[in-house]
Each structure stands twice: as C-alpha cells, then as structure tokens.
Amino acid sequence: MKVGKLPEQVLARSVLKEIGHRRGEVLMGPGIGQDCAVLSLKPDEVFVMSTDPITGTVKDMGSHSIHITANDLAASGAEPVGVMLTILLPQETEEHALRQMMQDVERTCRILDMEVLGGHTEVTNVVNQPLISVTGVGKVKKDQAILTNGLKPGHDLVVTKWIALEGTSIIAKEKEEELKRVLPEDFVNTAKAFDQYLSVIPESRIAAAHGASAMHDITEGGIFGALWEMGEGADVGLDIDLKQIPIRQESVEICERYGLNPYQLMSSGSMLIGTQGGAALVRKLQEQGIYAVLIGQAMPGRDRILRNGQDIRYLDRPQSDELYRL
Asked: Where are the beta strands (DSSP E) in 107-225?
C-alpha cells in the first residue's frame, strides 16, 4: 500500500466494515471523517484509561493488542468498554493483512464485549513492522477502583494460572519450525495455544468481589517486574517463595532452549493479586476453574526477598524483557 492515510475505500472495506457496535455506552463510534468517539456513563461511574504499544509480536497481533489492554483495565477493577487504535503499517503491507488484523481485533472485542471506538490507520516508512498503539477505556463505580497502593503489609500475594504464558506462546509461534526439530510437535503446539489463557478478566472479577487490595497483569518484565512494580507502587516489602510461583513445563523447556529467564518473560494471562485472605481467594478461583497459588506476602519496610529453599536473594529493579533478546 502507498505511504499516507489509508484511501477512503480501503478504510471502509478493510477497517470499518470489520468492526461492530455492541456497547450501549458508545453514542458515536468510528466512521469516515469521524475523529472522536462519544461515550456516556452513569452518575456513579468513572472512566479508567490505559494505553499500550504492541511491538513484541506480529502473529495474532490484533487479538493480542485487545487482550493486553483489557487486562490492564481489569487490573484496576474496571469493566473494559472499548479501545482507540492507532495502526502504523510499513509500505510492503498488503491490504489482506490489515483486514485480517481488524478481523482478529473484532473477534476478540466480541468475545470480551468491547468495541473499537475509533482511531487512525496509516502506511508509513518510519516503521519496519506493523505497530498497534491501543488506548483502552473502561468504567467502574467511583468507590470500587482498585489501586496498587491499596496493598498493605500482611496482605497475601496470589498468582493466577502460570507465568510466562504470553512469551512462551509468542516464541512458539515465531520459532515454530525450529522448535519442532528439537521438541515433540504436540509439545510445541500446546505452547502455541497458551494464548487461549491471555485474558485475566474472569479472575479480576472474582478477586474484586473478594476484596482484592491490588491487582497487576503480569506483562513486560515478567513476574519479577510485576512484583517490583507492585512493591514500589504500595511502598512495601515483599517475601516471596520462588518455588510456589506457577510455571508450565513448556515454558521451562522453551526458555532453556534459548537461554531465557522465564521469571523475566512477558506473562499476560497471569495476574498478581494482593489481598487479605489469600488462601480463601485461591479456593474461590479454583472453584471457577482458574488455577491459582499463594506465593508470599507484603511486608513492612522495602526489602523484597526471594526465597528458594534455604537460599535467599533480593529482587532487582526490572530488567528488559527476555523476549527482546530474541
């Protein structure tokens, strides 16, 4: 496609035609010449906003971008309403690839009951692969927003599902043929399918109803990054049992293959939750079919301790995500 804004006919048939309207809050959504969205809220509700650029993967990029943003909103206790998308495409992108991306976006929005509220799509020579920048909009009752600083000393820390799901799925897709030469095909296919677990909306609702004090979608930087950010945001120490942090064998072996640390690998699909009564929350989650583990506690002071049996080390400041090493 040619550099510049999409031609009107391409925008109409490959972007606007692919997205639907389903949220009552959306009074005006995307259209030709329509640069803004209009939303309505009830008097006791507030907006929650989130923004993210999606750069770690090209395969399934449309679906991935919606899940990541919806998870950020859910971690604040908010119900995701919709997204604004800015899509920048390199000149060699063909229209069918854009259409597929929008179909993936719409399919995921439909599953999560969200809408594309608007955005901008452009072909440019300043990027060498597709880039989606997503602004998410959610809503929550004024008195029910969950902030990181709600975590207090003595609160338990719970992790849902398994860490490294997102990074493992991306690597398995991007390196599929290479991995299948050294690992069983079923093993690699299982790892590719980890993207089925990317949404943390179900556990966020259960945790919010339980009275969670803080929630963090474990994204870039992995569980180590999420633990550091939660500790910093609440100005508390942490005492974490490394052996309790849940991880799939597929993640372990794929990370070993490429010399990556799974504790610092993108982990969307896994949520870090601070709460009183962590064991009770784990039971509630598991009753709903969501695997969860109690991994430690928030502590007074600022020491962030990682225990591995008799060995003790201290959590470092977040490092660059391991995925970028590939």
From this structure: 115-123, 131-141, 156-160, 214-217
The pLDDT assigned to 71 comes to 96
CA distance 5 to 54: 20
Per-residue model confidence as pLDDT tens digits over 51-101: 998 876 777 899 999 999 999 999 999 999 999 999 999 999 999 999 999
Of the candidates 214, 29, 218, the one whose C-alpha atom is nearest the C-alpha of residue 114 is 29
Rg of the chain (C-alpha set): 20
Strand ranges in the chain using DSSP code E only, listed in sequence order: 4-5, 26-28, 38-39, 45-54, 79-89, 115-123, 131-141, 156-160, 214-217, 237-241, 271-275, 292-299, 304-308, 311-314
- Range list of β-strands (E), 175-283: 214-217, 237-241, 271-275
Q: Are residues 37 and 84 in contact, defined by beta-carbon separation less than 8 angstroms?
A: yes
Distance CA 51, CA 38 (A): 18
Nearest one of 248, 46, 275 to 166, comparing CA atoms:
248
CA distance 38 to 25: 8
pLDDT at 59: 76
Residues 156 and 273: their CA atoms lie apart, in Å, by: 8
Amino acid letter at 36? C
Residue 21 is classified by DSSP as -
How far is 123 from 149, CA to CA, in rounded Å?
Answer: 41
Question: What gap in Å lies between CA 24 and CA 82, rounded to an integer?
Answer: 11
Helices (H) and strands (E) in the chain, counts: 10, 14
Catalogue the E-assigned strands of 184-317.
214-217, 237-241, 271-275, 292-299, 304-308, 311-314
138, β-bridge pairs? 48, 80
Structure tokens at 169: 């799925």
> What per-residue confidence (pLDDT) applies to 56?
65
